Amino acid sequence: MTETIKIVYVTDWVLGDNKLSNTDPFREVLLGFDADVSIQNSLPHNFEEIDLLILHPMEMNSAIFETISHSKSENPAIKTVVISSAHGSDLFLQAIDVGVDKYLLKPLLPSAVKKVSERLMRQSLEAKQAQKAFKQINLMFGAISKTSLLIRMEENGLIIEVNDLLCRLLGFQSDMMIGSHWMRFVERRFWIFLRTLVRERLKSGDIYRGIIELVSAKEDLITVDSTIYAIRNQRGEIEEIVCIAQDLSEVNRAILASMEQLIDYESSLTVLFNHRYEAILVNQKYLDLIGYERNDDFFASSPTRTWMAETSDGLEPINFDGCTRREVLESIFRQVHNGEIQGRVVLESHHQKREYYTLHISSMPNPMIPSEEYYILYFIDVTPIERIKEDKINDAKLMSVGRLAAAITHEINTPITYIKGNLELLQWECEDKIPEALPLFEPIQEGISRIESIVSSMYEFAGTGKEEMKPCNIHMTLIYALRIIMNRSKHIVPILINGELFSLASVYDSNSCMTMGISNRLEQVWIIILNNALDEFEKGTISYENRHIDIHFQCDEELITVTVSDNAGGIPETMLEGIFDYAISGDKKKSMGIGLNVAKAIIEKHGGGIRVSNKNEGATFEISLKRYKEKLDVV
Questions:
Q1: Is the dihedral of CA 72, 75, 79, 82 positive or negative?
Q2: How many CB atoms are located within 10 Å of the residue 445 CB?
Q3: How confident is the model at residue 397 (pLDDT cuts 50, 70, 90)?
Q4: What are the residues whose beta carbons fall under 8 Å from the beta carbon of 167, sequence distance 6 or more?
Q5: Which of 115, 219, 312, 618 pairs as cysteine with 566 (C-beta 3.0–4.6 A)?
Q6: Which spans in 265-352 are helix H?
């Protein structure tokens, strides 16, 4: 829109009929301008809309100067011209005092008035445009100040103005920021870049747009999208630097929310780190595992279990007393990232239950700052694989023991055969020659029978050849297992089976309950449970006559139940839940629960179940197996 200049021409010069002459040379010049020209014979009272006031009085008087003074106070931008034939330095000085822009003395050519008026009109037009621009700038800055973050600083970076929005966001009072260097409020890693920017790009006339991070009073980092430009003086030198920025906190939160959804899809325990290796999120599985709903609560809590790293020297603890979960995770990440942890990490509970994890790190670019990355640390649970590995090792050990037992029984059988044969010959000779010696053969025969019984049990336990499920007698497996441990148990505790004291002379009922299974594997279960009971008795102080192990088995139409109870003191309540997972001690001879994971695996392989509880000052193991029923052919 083109600006219009308003000109008021005041004159009291009149001719004959008291009207302004059409031949007035100044009037014709003024009417020729492309402007709003008003010609009047009296002084105006309102000067707000007048751009150029031209006074042509017949006689100079004080009213003229008062009018000019009043016009300047009411409208400082007004331009004033006085055309007068009155000479005198006093009048001229008085005109200067009241602010007359041009004092023209007659006689005067119309072209001179035209030239002076044109120049003052241009100045008025420029002033109006500048004023309009100034208003627009003020409106723009007002809008920016309400919606954007604003920092004005000197060329050397000292802050001269900040707006309220920035102060509220950072948590500083304006007087705390003004006079400080603006880098104090910028994250350190941007310093070198921004100094280079001011030194090179802004001096060359460029405007910078990009992401920076501001530091709040609480030392939180706030990501902003900034526009930085320089304001120059007439010589082209930088007078001020202005930074206008938009808070991207909501955008940042949206990015983190999408990343949270991404890691929540992971089946492994997953932790998100920023470019400073700070833990900022864990996935829902991790929260559920520990029992938290919010990441902040999770990170601030202290771990209840110990993280350890596998090294060539064994397991080395990672967390320390008083540390938070955030500190532990950040320590693990840094060690993995730096190559200090190359094996697995182990999570151990207070009762030494262990879980095994391999670690993997992936990265993704930061959408806000592409030169930086987010990192994801995956804890991949390999505990089931470790359990299988341990079971395989145990199986291999048991197979080795089995092969050794088979070899020993074979070697024992040969001399026993010689002894039995020669004993029979000797007995025949004594019947005729030394009949009084015959009673001595009875204990010898009993001893040989016991040896044969033990060897037979060992051979059965060794179970050479391919294992296959077939009908087997539960009572038989119990008797064979008890014969094997009898040499140890007879000095520790008496064992009753279905209410009868067990001895090597005990025999099994061939018509008792049958199940479909592997005999030597079921014997292995009884030996593991009984040996654990014997271990506990050896650690205790109960006298022999007050000790007992009771074995009861019963059958119904569908199920066989075997219960093994002792009074050795029971299992600590904190260990009951994980008793079948591993041995609760580093001392293999005195571990609580050694081999019970193997026993549980064997029972489950047979389609049964095993439970443990504390009863009557001891532990009770209850094993249930399906009963085998022989199918009769129907003709």
A1: negative
A2: 13
A3: low
A4: 173, 174, 177
A5: 618
A6: 284-290, 295-300, 325-337
Whole-angstrom distance, CA of residue 585 vs CA of residue 468:
34
Q: What is the DSSP string of 594-613?
A: TTHHHHHHHHHHTT-EEEEE
- The amino acid occupying position 614 is N
What is the pLDDT at residue 141? 64
Please tell me the distance from the alpha carbon of residue 137 to that of residue 143, in angstroms, as a whole number: 10
Phi, psi of 555 (to 5 degrees): -125, 145
Distance between CA atoms of 407 and 395, rounded to whole angstroms?
18
Q: Confidence class of residue 398 from pLDDT cuts 50, 70 and 90? A: low
Report the DSSP pairing between strands 102-105 and 79-84. parallel
3-state helix, strand, coil in the chain (%, to 5): 45, 25, 30
Range of lowest pLDDT (111-125, 272-286, 390-404)? 390-404
Q: Which of 273, 275, 276 minimizes the C-alpha distance to 259?
A: 273
- Is the model's pLDDT at 583 over the cut of 60? no
* Predicted confidence (pLDDT) at residue 582 exceeds the cutoff of 80: no
Nearest by Cα to 60 from 96, 32, 91? 91
pLDDT value of residue 634: 43
> Distance between CA atoms of 547 and 536, rounded to whole angstroms?
11
Q: Are 67 and 43 in contact (CB under 8 A)?
A: yes
What gap in Å lies between CA 87 and CA 301, rounded to an integer?
A: 94
Question: Which of 153-157, 497-501, 540-544, 580-584 has the lowest average pLDDT?
Answer: 580-584
- Tell me how far apart the alpha carbons of residues 360 and 366 are, in angstroms, rounded to a whole number: 19
Place of tokens 């080395």: 316
| Residue 492 reports pLDDT greater than 60 | yes
Q: Are 592 and 535 in contact (CB under 8 A)?
A: yes
- Find, among 593, 211, 547, 141, the residue nearest to 371 by Cα: 211
Q: In which band, very low, low, confident or very high, does the pLDDT at 417 lie, cut at 50, 70 and 90?
A: low
Q: Which amino acid is at 583?
A: A
Chain segment 177-207, per-residue pLDDT in tens? 999 999 999 998 888 888 887 677 787 778 8
Instruction: Could you list the beta-strand ranges (E) of 312-453.
Output: 314-317, 345-348, 354-365, 373-381
Distance in angstroms (rounded) separating the CA atoms of residues 465 and 471: 17
Rounded to whole angstroms, how far apart are CA atoms 608 and 603?
5
Closest CA relative to residue 42, chosen from 28, 53, 27: 53
Q: Which of 299, 293, 289, 297 lies closest to 269, judged by CA?
A: 289
pLDDT range class, residue 144, cuts 50, 70, 90 = low
Rounded to whole angstroms, the maximal C-alpha distance in the chain is 193
End-to-end alpha-carbon separation of the chain, Å?
114
- What does the alpha-carbon distance between residue 97 and residue 293 come to, in Å, rounded to a whole number? 79
Q: Are 259 and 270 in contact (CB under 8 A)?
A: no
pLDDT band for position 112 (50/70/90)? Answer: confident
Q: What is the spatial distance between Cα 22 and Cα 9, in angstroms, rounded to a whole number?
A: 14
Helix, strand, or coil (residue 212):
strand
Looking at residue 557, its pLDDT comes to: 84
Return phi, psi of residue 214, to 5°: -100, 155
